[in-house]
Amino acid sequence: MKLSEEASKVVETSMRMNRVDENERNEIIQLIDRLPDSRVNLYKNVVSNPIGDLPRYSIHIRIQHMLTFVTFLTLAFTGLPIAFLDHVWAVPMNNLVGGIDVSRIIHRTLASVMIFGMVYHIVYIAYTTMRLILIGKFELQRSIIPVLKDVRDFKMDMLYFAGKRDQRPEMDKFMYKQKIHYFAAAFGNLVMIISGSSFIFPEFWAAILPTSMASYFQEMMRLSHPHEALLALLVIAFWHWYNVHLAPGRFPMQWTFLTGKITREHQIEEHFLEYLRNLVELPEERAYLHDLLDARELATDSIEGLETVEETP
Amino acid sequence: MYFFVRKIISFILFLLLLMQSNLVSSFEDDSGCLLCHKYPKMGRIDENGVKRSYYVMPGVFGSTVHRNVPCTDCHNYIKQLPHKPVKTGVSCDAECHSIKNPATGKNFSHSSVYDKYKGSVHGREKIEQGLDSDKPYCITCHTNPIYNPNETEPPKRIIDRCVVCHEDREFVTNWYKHTSRRIREVKRTPEEIVQLCSNCHSDESLLQRHEKAASEEGRELGRKFSIAVESYDESFHGKVTKYGFTKAANCLDCHAKEDNYYMNVHDIRASRDPESPMHSSNKVETCRKCHIHADENYAELDPHPTSKKADNPFRYYANIIYSWVGDIVLVLLISMALIETIGRRRDGVSWSLRKGSSWWHRSSKSKDRIE
Questions:
Q1: For each of chain A's 313 residues, which pLDDT tens digit applies?
Q2: Are strands A261-262 and B51-53 parallel, antiparallel or unpaired?
Q3: Does A303 touch chain B (CB under 8 A)?
Q4: Domain count of chain A?
Q5: Which of A107, B90, B116, B225 is the most buried (most CB within 10 A)?
């Protein structure tokens, strides 16, 4: 496979950061040369373990996700019946958790846990980023920070879905969808915390804001809390759960949030640049690819060539 | 034989009479009102075709708080029997000539609370015509309540203790009932208070009638007059109160002065009245009853929020923008999920993993998995 300029840069940077020696370097370059020209050919033919093959999330990130999603769903469950009191499901739903006297305690307690999860995440991300910078392994495009390339990736991906391109763009560890989702959740979290605090500490907010703003701010918060909650819940239900549970290839679920690992075919399909880094960082992944390439002839772009390939035992 | 039968029948009749007298003896009927009013069918159909019952259930009335007040103390316009048609009925500020107020020695009367009520925004005469007839009279809110409805008999343990010195069990029982009913929290629950106020304040035709009259007369009404209940229901106070939470403010917590709750709930005033706890000069103090750190800014927050254009245009437009943004985001994301599914399905992805790959379907776009 002849790598694009972008991908070559990623491999080069990764080899430099990991201080790869000459032998390994040659091995990596040779392996990449052996890969089939089309990425489609690669991710369609690798064998994946459904619970994941390649490292993606550390235990801290998994705990933070767990904290966020458990608190989020319970907060929604205890909060929605209050916001949408006049709906027929509201009262039975509230009774299910023991009535208002219980649900308000649950709501506030879990809000604190959610805030703790957020602080934990910020501290963890700040710490790991600092550490990566200090040891010289920080790469902006490998992080969740949106870059211009994401806009291009989005366009290319849409063209692929529309059938105008034959393969998906080379995306990094975090693709455009994940970046949108991450920042939407971060923004939503912040809105929920500020608006929630304006319900529990209205005097505080009124005292620190100028007189002309205090009332508008409170009205805005009264609107924001239920609107944002409902939007978040619907986005989670219709988009996030689609992406990680319902989408073909991900069904019935991606195990990443539990195992911290991503399947090989998924990594190559949606995070090809990260897969190249995996090849640099993980000798066992290189060994797997060598075995695969030895056993099956995947190379070449010629469709005629493919038809003559014999079945592998 | 016949003699015995007569004796037995007389005895049974005597017993029945005893039972009957036991029933009516629970309150004094000095004026003989029950001569007629004991009959369940006692009543008439009035000029408007409404069926009116004049039946007094002695057993029930006998266990109400007014059971010791002779009928003619309140119905003081009855001078002879049979009496003439009643024009105005009972006024609650009437003085009871038979009961003395043990604290002052004066005749017992509700006049102090009645005067308070007359000075409030709700004050009216018993018989009113026109708009004022929409206002509540005493009996709109107060029925003639029965002693502790949750407690048919006072606890024996307590009565036993009292009779050790006070000897008379009946006296002690009555005293206990009288006192315990007043010591207990006999307020309506917050939910019931909201319901009570809503009876009139969410009556559309009543509200329209008053708004129309006010605009014709150039009179000012409260800013939230016509939306008081629905906006309260939309507030946090309203929502949690509806769920039975008792610590959030209900109508009376803000609209009645604090110092003597039981007196001041009768003295509700319009918020433009300087005596109202909702008047701009008293608002901060009223908020501080619960929100101890409240300041002037806090008092500006709207306890009756709505997204109605006429009431709060800022919130009205903000709400529209919020809804649109939410809808657009959802439509875009769901479309993205759909187009993604279609695109990847076309390229051969499937919903299950077979031999370690999801790409075992035939692709109409690029190369297939090699089996």
A1: 899 999 999 999 999 999 999 999 999 999 999 999 889 999 999 999 999 999 999 999 999 999 999 999 999 999 999 999 999 999 999 999 999 999 999 999 999 999 999 999 999 999 999 999 999 999 999 999 999 999 999 999 999 999 999 889 999 999 999 999 999 999 999 999 999 999 999 999 999 999 999 999 999 999 999 999 999 999 999 999 999 999 999 999 999 999 999 999 999 999 999 999 999 999 999 999 999 998 887 755 444 434 434 444 4
A2: unpaired
A3: yes
A4: 2
A5: A107
Q: A21 and A170 in one domain?
A: yes
Q: Which residues 308-337 on chain B approach chain A with CB closer than 8 angstroms?
A: 312, 314-315, 318-319, 322-323, 326, 329-330, 333-334, 336-337
Inter-chain contact B356–A82, Cβ cutoff 8 Å?
A: no
Total count of domains within chain B: 1
pLDDT digits (tens, 9 = 90+) for B256-280: 998 898 899 999 999 999 999 999 9
Q: Which domain holds residue A128?
A: 57-138
Selecting from B293, B342, B358 the residue whose C-beta is nearest the C-beta of A265 gives: B358
Find the CB nearest B239 among A49, A85, A219.
Answer: A85
**CB contacts, 8 Å: A87 with chain B:** none
* Domain end call among A87, A110, A138: A138
Stated pTM of the model: 0.85
Task: Answer yes or no: do A63 and A107 share one domain.
Answer: yes
Which of B304, B332, B355, B357 to mutate against chain A (most A CBs within 10 Å)?
B357
Residue B43 lies in a domain: yes
User: Residue B333 is nearest to which of A91, A235, A306, comparing CB atoms?
Assistant: A235
- Residue numbers in A near B232 (CB within 8 A): none
A73 domain residue, yes or no: yes
Asked if A167 and A266 sit in the same domain, the reply is yes
Give how far B270 is from chain A: nearest CA, Å.
22
Q: What was the ipTM of the complex prediction?
A: 0.90
